[in-house]
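DATA SHEET
Item: assembly model
Revision: 1
Owner: S.N.
Input lines:
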Amino acid sequence: MAEMDTSSGGGHKKGPGVKKGKKLSTRVDLTPMVDLGFLLITFFIFTTTMSQATAMKLNLPKDTDKPEEQTKAKESGALTILLGRDNHIFYYEGILDATASNLKSANSKEIRDVIADKKHRTDEKDFVVVIKPTDESSYKNVTDMLDEMLINVVKRYALVEISPVEEQVVKLSEGGAAAPAGK
Amino acid sequence: MARPKIPRKSTSVDMTAMCDVAFLLLSFFILTTKFKPSEAVAVTTPSSVASKVAPEKDVVLISITKDGKVFLSMDDVSKKQSLLNSLNQIRSAGWSEADINALAKLDFWGMSIAGLKQQLTLPKDQQTDKTLPGISVKDTANNEMNDWMRAAVSTYSGGSMNLLIKGDNESKYPAFKAVKQALTKNDLLKFQLVTNPQGVPTGTDLYKANQITKGGAPVE
């Protein structure tokens, strides 16, 4: 209370007219505004360059019915990848035998090692990967597999229609794979 | 010794000029940026390690949506007109000159050839992948994409056509297969799949190959 009295008394001492309002500077510090400006610039630069679509090249073999024109692949160097539903991947080396005992299952991560392993085991000019998507597989599965070809630098690969036998085998294996999980 | 008095200068710099520059650049970038047009055909593309940027000229783009509907679009209006003209001849669709001009103005085509004129009757904001049925490709015997591609081949004969396929992650393989068959039938064996860029996983063969070329040491 005492303090308030002195301050008010001091103000009154000078009397009316003598009291001077402090003159404030009109200059504002613009540094934060500059910071903000450059922050937005960097934001726009980064966001604009990121969204560029790329394209993956794909060359298809010519449709031909004549067997002598079709591309031949050595059995020992062939790796066939079958794409099933729900991202299931099956593969076999060489030719699928009658009981489908050489058909193995893999997930999207394991298949990379499978391809790399097969590539290092076989002679480069014999190595060929055959990709056979079933009707149940998605477009993403197909492009992912073509991407794996790029990642593993597979020189020769082909996108081939699946045969009815293989389709049957994939269907059975998918059923078989689902059954143990259900138990 | 009496030293001459140097007036002490303030260290604070006038930021106004810098602020001007910053906002000038900002407005420049905002105004020059092309905003992605809200796409009538919504497609989420898969990602790949392919680093080649998709071409933007002489593009023939086939979009596959997640329901398996197929749409076709092109960038050049005059090329669109000649494509429609040759398609008119191939299928004898009976389009008049005015029809073809109107059809060429559409951003994309997404109907069977017989019903394509119906797309003109729809207002622009209703021409989306939800409302339109897409080009019919499912029927193997009567795959209309065949005729579209035949028309495209005759339009771009002599020139180079950049054939792009933009498929949705979730679209099933048969739609892509049908498009692929239409392309191979017309001897269009080289095309490109539109993808999102993605980093190369470490330790793979491509990663090693990239390391060598980036290091500047030419092999062989």
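QC remark: The longest helix of chain B spans residues 16-32.
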